[in-house]
Amino acid sequence: VSFGASELDELEASLAALARFEVAATAHVEGLIARGADTRQTYARLVATLDAGERGRARLVTALRKALAGDGTALMAPHASELLATIYDQLATLVRTRAMYQDLYRDDSAYGLDGTGESLAEGWVWAAISQRHWLIDTFPTYSGRGTALLALANAYDDQGRGADARAMLQLFLCGNRQAEILASKEAGEDDAIYGGIYARAIGLTDYEGCAAASDDRDTVARAWMQLAEMHQATTGEADLAVAAMSRASSDARAAVYADALRALADLQLARDAVFDAIPPLDELVLFADQSSANAEAAGGLRDWAVQALGRILALLWRPSSLP
């Protein structure tokens, strides 16, 4: 079994189209049920669609595994591995969708109600995690490394493993400081699950000089915001949350620039650092005044920032609040 570059590209495009079709089919069934259609009949149609997609993907998994195990596919192994992880993700989604409809519209517990569906979906999730770890461990210079790290961060976040999710985001955003991120790593029992080197990392204590594994400013800014939100939700990491959100709001051309400025101001206000909240609020007012994309949204941001600045100035007017 062998896959070349063109075959993998074609397969990737076909899988994306199939996933869109399955989403549309699910929405169509929901619409039929909402209009009073027979739930058993419409459920059977959906299951037939999902079953076909699941069986086809299972065959692809077998073929790709054989290709990765062969001797003649080393050049295409990173792409094939990435595609295999994507298929695992899609299989987990398929299983969960079918289990959900099983719970809603079927009386028996042959699938889904007894937890079988979720257990199977979890297996596919961890298969995807394992595959992506193999990919970034085996091909550290692979061009898709950044995408794999972000996928790992989201997967770990979904699994409730915040420390691992933060470590993956740090590796994506500060790959040039990988040695620091993993310096305090301790081997854990979960190492065996994916066979990688990332089990537990205390990580960085600042974000100076970080270079992201992507040139896409929107992707990078959103990743900084995601990391900041994770720090914010972790006790004792308020300074890191501010540092990460500051990086998210450092590029005025990023799509989330205004959202990052507002989030940074909120972070500073939440910890009573009113002086530090003034610069992002000022920048938000200037940005809103110059924005022409969405006048209504910009006006709302400007009003919020001006009101926040007004409250800060009223507070600082008190003699006891002067520095």
Structural commentary:
By secondary structure, the protein is mostly helical. The protein contains 13 helices and no strands. Helix 10 packs antiparallel against helix 11 (257-270).
Summarize the model shown.
By secondary structure, the protein is mainly α. It is 71% helix and 0% strand. The chain is globular, with a radius of gyration of 24 Å.
Describe the SSE topology.
Layout: H1 5-34, H2 39-69, H3 77-105, H4 116-138, H5 145-158, H6 162-173, H7 178-182, H8 191-194, H9 217-232, H10 238-248, H11 257-270, H12 274-290, H13 295-317
Helix pairs in contact: 1-2, 1-3, 2-3, 3-4, 4-5, 5-6, 6-9, 9-10, 10-11, 11-12, 12-13
| Main sheet attributes: strand count, strand direction, barrel closure | none
Tell me the radius of gyration.
24 Å
Q: How many DSSP H or I helices?
A: 13
Distance between the termini: 72 Å
According to DSSP, the number of beta strands is: 0
Assign the structural class, choosing from mainly alpha, mainly beta, alpha/beta, alpha+beta, or little secondary structure: mainly alpha
Morphology? globular
**Low-pLDDT segments, ≥5 res:** 108-113, 186-201
- Secondary structure: helix percent: over 70%
The string of secondary-structure elements, in order, is HHHHHHHHHHHHH
Percent strand: under 5%
- The pLDDT mean sits at 82
Which tags fit this structure?
323 residues, mainly alpha, 13 helices, 71% helix
